[in-house]
Amino acid sequence: MLRRLTLIVTVSAAACVLASSATAAAAGTTYIRAEATSPEFLFIDAAYSGPPIFDPWHFTHPLSDLGCAFTPLDASSEAADSHLTLLVRGWTSGDLFDPDTGVFLGQQDALHARVAGTVVDSAGNHYRIRGRFFDDGSRHVLPGQDYYGIGHVAIMGSVGRVVGQAILYRTTDGGDSWSLDFTKVDTCT
To answer: How many of the other CB atoms lie within 10 Å of CB of 51?
Structure first.
């Protein structure tokens, strides 16, 4: 027997509004359909080896290092000035732990995500953003990672554009934080 649960949570304006629908299924997985808006932090940068700019674990760099016109605001300002929607659909096991040792084992996921909306650069220019990602659970190395997918994203505006492969990373531990890290840039103007 399948059960359907719909949950709507509204928190303060600075926090995320989340609408989620879940159906319980066999074998310890759950089908989710979730929509999120208004992250508290939005990081947009390039991921490649070398000295990091803010996070030594991710080795991220500003897109301007690659000659891109798009230079995002700091993460909290970018989140406040952007208008984004994140849709996630698919199956997830959630965080898995070894029952004997309590060691985190990762996740088993088949989650598709779409991100769409507008972002603003440091000069006040507006850009459209669209991306599609897939999370199979293999990159979850810490508990509490809500989404960690690889896909394709395009940021386009009258001043320039950035198009390429990227990682979409989302965590809600300590606040709703989204990170778009370009791993391969196809177009950068």
So the answer is: 7
| Rg of the chain, C-alpha, whole Å | 17
136: which residues sit within 8 A by CB, 6+ positions away? 109, 110
Per-residue pLDDT tens digits of the chain, which is 189 residues long = 333 333 333 233 333 344 444 444 436 789 999 999 989 999 998 876 544 444 444 456 788 878 888 999 999 999 999 999 999 999 988 888 999 999 988 888 999 999 999 999 999 999 999 999 999 888 777 777 788 899 999 999 999 999 999 999 888 877 889 999 898 899 998
Answer yes or no: are the C-beta atoms of 98 and 147 closer than 8 Å.
no
Stated as kind and residue range, the H or E segment containing 185 is: strand 177-188
